[in-house]
Structure formats: C-alpha cells, structure tokens
Automatic annotation (TrEMBL):
Record carries keyword Acyltransferase: yes
Gene source species: Pseudomonas shirazensis
InterPro entries the UniProt entry points to: Acyl_CoA_acyltransferase (IPR016181), Bact_Acetyltransf (IPR050832), GNAT_dom (IPR000182)
Domain of life per record: Bacteria
Domain N-acetyltransferase positions: 4-144
CDD domains noted in UniProt: NAT_SF
Name listed for the protein in its UniProt record: GNAT family N-acetyltransferase
EC category name: transferase
Keywords in alphabetical order: Acyltransferase, Transferase
Keyword Acyltransferase carried by entry: yes
Matches recorded under Gene3D superfamilies: 3.40.630.30
Length: 144
C-alpha cells in the first residue's frame, strides 16, 4: 500500500471524487437518501480528500462554524487509519481558522473513534437519517 495523504479539496474540481465516496458509503451502504446526503452547505464547506497515491479513498468537510461532517472512507480502506488522517487534517484546518470548538454528529458506533481524538458526547442519542447518532464537541485545547 502507498502512503495515505490528505489534501484540501475543491468542491467544483473534486466533486466527482467526493460524490463517489459519499455515494458509496452513505447512499449505497447506509441507505441514506441522496437528497439528505448532499446539501446546500457543500458549496461553501472546506472539503478534504484522503488519497492512496492518486486514488481518492476518503473525504470529510468542515463548515465555517466548526462543524465537521460527511466523514467517509471507502470500505476497502477502513481499518487502515484513513479516518485518523482525515480527522487530523480537519482538526488542524479548524485550528488554523481559529475555530476553537469543533462539533460533529457521530454515528453511535463511531463514538470511541472520535473520543480518541478529544471529542466528548454532549447529547442523548437521536436518529438522523434513521441511524442512531450523538452530538460531540472538541475544544481546541484538547489533544488531537
């Protein structure tokens, strides 16, 4: 396997790669309707692409208010620390933008992953697109 890298993505230029990953993970695997997966926040968001060599394998986005979302890694690359690489890049970008607090809506099964990155559960469990989630928050002073 080549080295995994993460770079800032351009919503227009990298749109097909971002859509391919999010379609595979959220729409095909998790049966989230495409109209819920892609929204009006996408064009203004800061997007990230994880790559193995030149091949896009993961994506995430950061909103202007510090909300992190749409974190997704293609199935064949899970368990290889791609999610860690994506999240470290997103957190670093949030801090560079002086976003002192990062928030996300985590699928319940993924909460231990986010807790390792300094996020804390701040809500009761709720359903989002039919999947159990919790809200999580990370302060910039927390370890990444």
């Amino acid at each position: 396997m080549n080295r995994i890298s993460v770079r800032l993505a351009d919503w227009i230029k990298d749109n097909s790669d971002i859509r391919h990953i999010r379609d595979a993970v959220f729409v095909a695997e998790q049966h989230i309707p495409p109209e819920l997966e892609f929204d009006a926040e996408d064009p203004q968001a800061v997007h990230f692409l994880a790559l193995e060599g030149d091949y896009p394998i993961g994506t995430a986005r950061l909103l202007a208010d510090g909300t992190i979302g749409r974190i997704s890694v293609l199935k064949d690359w899970r368990g290889l620390k791609v999610g860690d690489a994506l999240m470290h890049a997103v957190i670093a970008e949030a801090q560079a933008r002086d976003l002192k607090q990062q928030t996300l809506s985590a699928q319940v099964h993924a909460t231990p992953f986010y807790e390792r990155l300094g996020f804390k559960v701040v809500s009761e469990e709720f359903l989002e697109a039919g999947i159990p989630h919790v809200e999580m928050v990370r302060e910039s002073c927390d370890l990444a």
